[in-house]
Amino acid sequence: MTAKLNLTLKVWRQVHAKAKGEFKTYKVHDISPDMSFLEMLDELNNELIRKGEEPVAFDHDCREGICGTCGMMINGQAHGPERLTTTCQLHMRKFKNGDTIVIEPWRARAFPVLRDLVVDRGSFDRIQQAGGYTSINVGNAPDGNSVPIPKTQADPAFASATCLGCGACVAACKNASAMLFVGAKVSQFALLPQGQPERAQRALSMVAQMDEEAFGNCTNTYECEAACPVGISVDNIARLNREYIRASVCSNVMP
Amino acid sequence: MKLDARIPSGPLDAKWDHCKNEMKLVSPTNKRKFDIIVVGTGLAGASAAASLAELGYNVKAFCFQDSPRRAHSIAAQGGINAAKNYQNDGDSVYRLFYETVKGGDFRSREANVYRLASVSGNIIDQCVAQGVPFAREYGGTLANRTFGGVQVSRTFYARGQTGQQLLLGAYGSMNRQIQLGRVKMFPRREMLDLVMVDGVARGIVVRNLVTGEYETHAAHAVLLCTGGYGNAYYLATYAKGSNVTAAWRCYKRGAAFANLCYTQIHPTCIPVTGDHQSKLTLMSESLRNDGRVWVPKNPGDLRSPNEVPDTDRDYYLERRYPSYGNMVPRDVASRAAKERCDSGYGVGSSAKAVYLDFSDAIKRDGVASIKAKYGNLFDMYAKITDEDPYASPMRIYPAIHYTMGGLWVDYNLESTIPGLFVLGEANFSDHGANRLGASALMQGLADGYFVAPYTVGHHLASRKLAKVGTDHPAFKETMYNAKDRVEKILKVNGKRTSDSFHRELGITLWDYVGMARNEAGLKKAMEKIRTLRDEFWQNVKVLGTGDSFNQNLEHAGRVADFLEFGELLARDALTRNESCGGHFREEYQTPDNDTLRDDTNFQHVAAWEYTGEGKEPIRNVEPLTFDEVKPIQRSYV
Ligand SMILES: Cc1cc2nc3c(=O)[nH]c(=O)nc-3n(C[C@H](O)[C@H](O)[C@H](O)COP(=O)(O)OP(=O)(O)OC[C@H]3O[C@@H](n4cnc5c(N)ncnc54)[C@H](O)[C@@H]3O)c2cc1C
Ligand code: FES
Catalytic site residue B330? Predict the structure, then answer.
């Protein structure tokens, strides 16, 4: 058994979207190193409730690193210090007794804060609505094995498809660019035969929606890749750029 | 209450076609005049919303997460079944049907299960067309793996994140309809009640979780796709937000709640490590394809697992069930693990764990191959436990994972409330007393893509539905009721957190309504839950206001419902005097600790009817008949 931790937390508190936020300092004691970061926040919240203070709001659901709901800046890093890890899968053994931890929401114009550490990521959904799919109605699908897809194509498509939509890439980027997120979806379909019929239109529509949502431009600093909890590679950004150029010169597609 | 399952006539393999031919249709131009509410955007809800919108209906979809893509279905790991027989290993619709009925310990409806098996292949086709990146062989064809309780390879998968990929496929289809204006999506909404007009479901009350505002929505049909109730046990493999609230409120409006005691306890989860733990994490059943389960032969053997030679290991599943080995169904594997631990052979600091060992598979296939199949699961294990599962075996123990019970539905997936349809894990469905692995994803998508689009249409075309808007008095009244209850929670202003009530409820359910149950224990559980519920309403402490973003209030509302629900769960277990599937009553077991059914007295569905606050509910019965398969004592030896 490793020793318990006593920590100082500096947490962003903001009661609603229009309110002015500020950092508040809290102490937590006897934190087990086996706890997840969110379990540590649960402890803080239970303590706050007992003291009559409103608990810290934060988004979470699966707590298994797959739903993409959780996410916060921990000491200035999206999802904290451990690579390839969501906040819910970060464990307290990564911290030392006596540490001070600064906890903030994602900061981006396209992700307005709703309360404390909770932001509105509706912009991501709207980008997906613009074209992140194949237009096939139920009932029309051919047999699953009718189009063989080589493993060499299927595997990279899968790798792109694993994006959680958590927003860490945007939060980590100094320009708050969403290129990695958009690149991942565009790549998944660009790599698969199913995605070919709408390939050009998809790239144009999703990029147009991204521009409308107040995300910044990509200046190739690759902070997004470093922060991504599932390791989505910046190759997806390069592919998005290629797809966009390819689509733009395709005269029969309207953006 | 009359329970008419409306099972179509004719031979088993022709029933669904027969039903579809008989059903009334809404003409293409009339479809846009109908509004449909879909609550929940997991596999069941997202697929239903997309398919109904494709047909031309106006759909409104709701979920409590910030995005429909985050529904609990996203966490499904291992795979989805389909009787494609791509492996040429003798699979067929009939075999999938038979194994599902047998796996469910002969407590499901033959007709429903057959339909499920027969549309399973179409699900895979649909998902592939959506661009779901299933695992493939080098030749480009789809790959399969094996799951428990079956002897063919019919499970399609996308590494250890099949649910994620299937859900993103359905989410994509729904997004397309949102873009086309046929689906209107309402995220961060919690359904708090069902609105009934003239005995028919005509709308819902939701709370906007950002602003705290109450909203009412009217429709011609309501589809409840809100998932399972396993979080009643607090520690479970469910997402933290999963709840019974929507289903429970429908129960109180007259929808029968069926077979609550059929809860699935999954054999391979990461064991509990301390009181701080907020949830348990599953290690997919697919791991049992390559992992071998064992405990030391000598109780209290303190050597590290790699130092225990083969001769000192008890591969108890392989020993007890030679033909299925590590691939016995979940209920059997879970009970066997509990038996070993209770007898003193458990490992790890708590002695409540068994080993799942991959060393033979790693030796045989190499680390790279194991990584390709299960990489994300191994990583997850390492993150949580700080141990390397490639170097030493995983430690695992059973945990609450899935609920076979749910709102009672007929063959058309309609509840006992006309116009209220229930899909996916929220219904009592097709799995009987135990669900086979990789069948929940199949069922959710079958319900949403292939069943509800027909049966909901039939409801719309065959019933006269008066024009009803949210200005109808029933909407106001239901909304005020919902609001009152929320305000009541805020007013208690006691001393205990909602979390502490939830934990205590969970411990009670796990101890008395968990893997092994008995009469005395179940009675005690009911008593304890009643006491806890009374205390909740006098001593819960919820801060903040109702008209703001208030997660503490959301949680307290869900716990309040679990505290009512938990008692019915224990009651259902108490009144089923037999053992079957996930419901194990110690009084009813075979000499080797297997479930002992009582087909004479309990070959039926128990569907509970609400009779009012503080009154005993009524246990209604739907007899099950088996024309095609003969119920036998399940054997996996
Ligand atoms: C860790 C894990 C792994 C699994 N792996 C597999 C597997 O490999 N294969 C398999 O077949 N099955 C698996 N299962 C089971 C399967 O994932 C679920 O049974 C299935 O996904 C449930 O889908 P659903 O659409 O019915 O509900 P869910 O996905 O649970 O969705 C419920 C929806 O309802 C909404 N909702 C709930 N309550 C309310 C409310 N009050 N108001 C508004 N909205 C509400 C939620 O927002 C959500 O959108 C697994 C389960 C777990 C826990
Ligand atoms: S809570 Fe789901 S990824 Fe963290």
Answer: yes
Question: Is the C-beta atom of B444 inside 6 A of ligand 1?
Answer: yes
How far apart (Å, rounded) are the C-alpha atoms in residues B353 and B338?
9
Two structure tokens written together for B493: 């202003």
Q: Look at residue A95 and give its three-state secondary structure.
A: coil
Is A52 in the B-facing interface, judged by CB distances under 8 Å?
yes
pTM of the model: 0.98
What are B91-110's pLDDT values in tens digits? 999 999 999 999 999 999 99
pLDDT for residue A253: 58
Complex-level ipTM beyond the 0.85 threshold: yes
Which residue shows structure tokens 């294990």? B381
Residue-wise pLDDT for B412-466, tens only, equals 999 999 999 999 999 998 999 999 999 999 999 999 999 999 999 999 999 999 9
Cβ(B73)–Cβ(B226) under 8 Å? Answer: no
Q: Which residues of chain A are within 8 Å of residue B274 when distances are taken between CB atoms?
A: 32, 34-35
Helices (runs of H) and strands (runs of E) counted in chain B: 17, 19
- For residue B236, give the nearest of B275, B273, B277, B274 by alpha carbon: B277
* Residue A88 pLDDT exceeds 70: yes
Closest chain B C-alpha to A180 CA, distance in angstroms: 17
Mean pLDDT of B24-53: 97
List the 364-423 stretch of B: residues with Cβ below 8 A of A. 379-380, 383-384, 386
Query: Are B585 and B268 contacting, i.e. CB atoms less than 8 angstroms apart?
Result: no
> With an 8 Å Cβ cutoff, is A87 touching chain B?
no
Bridge partners of B204, per DSSP, are B194, B217
Residues 6+ apart with CB under 8 A from A28: A6, A7, A9, A40, A43, A44, A47
Q: Compute how many other C-beta atoms are within 10 angstroms of the C-beta atom of residue B237.
A: 26
pLDDT per position as a tens digit, B488-543: 999 999 999 999 999 999 999 999 999 999 999 999 999 999 999 999 999 999 99
State mean pLDDT over A62-67.
97
pLDDT of residue A252: 62
How far apart are the C-alpha atoms of B365 and B383, rounded to whole Å?
Answer: 24
Residue B476: count of CB within 10 angstroms of its CB: 14
- Give the distance (Å) from ligand 1 centre to CA of residue B210: 23
Kindly list the domain boundaries of chain B, sorted by start residue. 265-401, 473-596
Residues 6+ positions from A104 with CB-CB distance below 8 Å: A12, A72, A73, A117
Report the residue of chain B nearest A231, measured CA to CA: B376
Take atom 3 of ligand 2 and give the residue whose Cα is closest. Answer: A65
Backbone φ and ψ for A100, nearest 5 degrees, come out as -105, 130
Q: Cβ of B241 and A38 within 8 Å?
A: no
Cα B167 to middle of ligand 1, angstroms? 10
pLDDT of residue A83 exceeding 60, the answer is yes
User: Is A255 a residue whose pLDDT tops 70?
Assistant: no
**In terms of CATH architecture, what is B265-401?**
Alpha-Beta Complex (3.90)
Q: Identify the CATH assignment for B473-596 out of 1.20.1440.230, 1.20.58.100, 3.40.50.880, 3.30.9.10.
A: 1.20.58.100
Domains of chain A (ranges, CATH numbers) = 5-114 (3.10.20.30), 121-134+150-248 (1.10.1060.10)
Q: How many CB pairs under 8 A join A and B?
A: 214
Radius of gyration of chain A (CA): 21
**Most B-contacting residue of A37, A51, A61, A134 (CB-CB within 10 A), to test interface:** A61
- Residue B151 is given by DSSP the state S
B140 and A CB contact within 8 Å: yes
Evaluate: CB of A208 within 6 angstroms of ligand 2.
Answer: no
H or E stretch covering B605: strand B604-609
Indicate whether residue A86 lines ligand 2 (CB < 6 A): yes
- Here the tokens at position B235 are 């520690």
